[in-house]
Each structure stands twice: as C-alpha cells, then as structure tokens.
C-alpha cells in the first residue's frame, strides 16, 4: 500500500539581512531534530523509497540528516516544492513512479494543508487534530492510500499518525 510522509523541515536560523529565505540554514536544534525525525521514522517502520525535497537549504539539510538514520533511497530536489500549495504538490506526486513510500520534505502551510486535504475515512483523530494546528518543525504526517499517485485527491488517504523529531 503506498505511503506518503509529508515532513516539514527542521528549525532554521532566523532571517538575517542579506540572506535569502532560500539560503537559511538549520539551527543547531534543527540539526538534532532532523536526525531524531529520521530515527523516529525508522523505529515506526516508515522507510522511504523516494525523497522529494524542496531546494531550500534548510529542507536539503533536514533530509540529509534524516537520511543518516534511514536506509539509502533515491532523493530528488524538486524546485516546485519550495513555493507550492496543495494543487502543485499533488501535480508533483502524480509523476511519482514508486509503489512504496515517498517522503516530501517541504514547508508549512503546504505540508499540513495537504495532509488535511488528503485525510479521509479511517484517519486517526489525534493525528487529524495535530495536523489542523499545522505541523511544527521536524514533524511529519503519515498517510496511506489505495489509489495511484495520480489519483490522490480530497479524502483519498488515511492519516495514520504524526511523527516528530522533537518528541524523541
């Protein structure tokens, strides 16, 4: 059964004059939380077959550190993830050619909005409540579904859990 993990990047350094948003790096606490998120996914048996990562420095760093706790998998930097919303994310997911688990390392509010949009019957009530408040940094929503990636739409998935690197 295909699984989608929608992960928000870990805590980044504060904006600074002369530094673009795209170039903001992870804070020390964010680096630790990224590794913990990878560990939490591994412990939950959530092993990605493919990672789709926003080109922002903080998302690429988050994935690199998450991946240290996960078995190796293909990763792709996808420019569209940086400033997209739910429809754009679904367009990217429609091109996925993996039958297993895909992790998207992206940004808010798109990560939580996509999880809420996709969550349908059988979703975990606690996870739904957490997603409704937005995903904190270094946190991921985990969904599974019975359709093809290109068929994802409103209420076509089950939100199983929200996993956090901050809880470890």
TrEMBL record:
Q: Where is the signal peptide?
A: none
Instruction: List the SUPFAM superfamilies hit by this protein, alphabetically.
Output: Phosphoglycerate mutase-like
Which InterPro entries does this one have?
Answer: His_Pase_superF_clade-1, His_PPase_superfam
**Its domain of life?**
Bacteria
Query: What is the designated name of this protein?
Result: Histidine phosphatase family protein
Originating organism: Demequina capsici
